[in-house]
Amino acid sequence: MKRIFSNLTFQVIAAIILGVLVGLYFPGFAPVAQSISKMFISLISMLIAPIIFFTIVLGIAGMSDMKKVGRVGGKALLYFELVTTFALIIGVAVANLVKPGAGMSPHHANGDVSKVAQYQQQAGEMHWGDFFMHIIPSNFVEAFAKGDVLQVLLIAILFGFGLSRMGSTGQSLIQSLDKLSKVFFNIMHIVMRAAPLGAFGGMAYTISTHGLQTLKPLAMLMASVYMTMALFIFVVLNLICYLFKFSLWKYLKFIRQEILIVLGTSSSEPALPLMMDKLEKLGCARSVVGLVIPTGYSFNLDGTTIYLSMATIFLAQVFQVPLTLAQQLTIIGILMVTSKGAAGVTGSGFIVLTSTLAAIKVIPVEGVALLLGVDRFMSEARAITNVIGNGVATMVIAISEKEFDKQKYELAVNGEKMTK
Known about the structure:
By secondary structure, this protein is an all-alpha fold. The chain is built from 20 helices and no strands.
């Protein structure tokens, strides 16, 4: 019994249940709950930039063939594009089949239209060229100070290339960086003991602020989104896992703590350094993990992609806008571009959705207000799907590059102790 109570997975589940109950019966606790959740996410966020930096630098510096780095990156981007396109098509297909917005009036949900103007303005400022310009930081320190994943990724790749060109003279620096990397991973394991608190705070804040009653008008959309993401994980990702000869179920069991933390905090960010650590333990080479996971957080957002496609079709149904097949294909094309920039922007779901609606010019942009109340409840599904999808992508690229240790994988999924 003592062993169960000390288990982190059990603690996080208990914290989420407690958070739901506190949110329902003590709504005044919301500000404190939000602070608790923010503190935990901040603790994890402060570790993301250095962990990404050290993992990528050590991975690239350890690769003798620099062409291989480019090949891994190219393979990853091709995989991301194929899988997210599949996610988009599934989202549009299910939304057309289930028709979650049919029969609903725009007045059925109390949308805060005043907030939409803010999203419209931000969406108007979003440009594809700016997204690429943003990847290059104005100085070395700024990227780390802001914790910008893509900027840190670029610096780490350049630093890794520079270090690899030093040959044997760079070995002492590689050893020092390796020791520093282990220090940050140890800090992360200490911080993880506070995960139940973070999950409790996030869930209590969500329930007490939005309340379960906000779900009722849009329950059909929520059910459709959750069902589609489950289909994507257990059919599409399961098929990918089968083709590359590893078990989706064993993989999900191995990352269950990360999934629960994402569920509690409604954010995939706290799981980023944890997933990098877990995927190395699953047998993926550090160089592959370092390149694929951080890039995937911007370019492989399967859950966000499904949500955006379904939300667009849902709003078309609510406003009774008949979309032709050509218009739906246009929406898919636009979302293939706009969804890629979603991770780097605060409030990204609404900004990307608003920019998409503004681009297609057939669905009223103010319809976004209908989704404000339930977006928080759907963000868990988006974040969990994103995290699971990025882990699968990393294992696929590692296996295809023969940078996968099958013995290490078997030891990890069977729960045997192993030295790192």
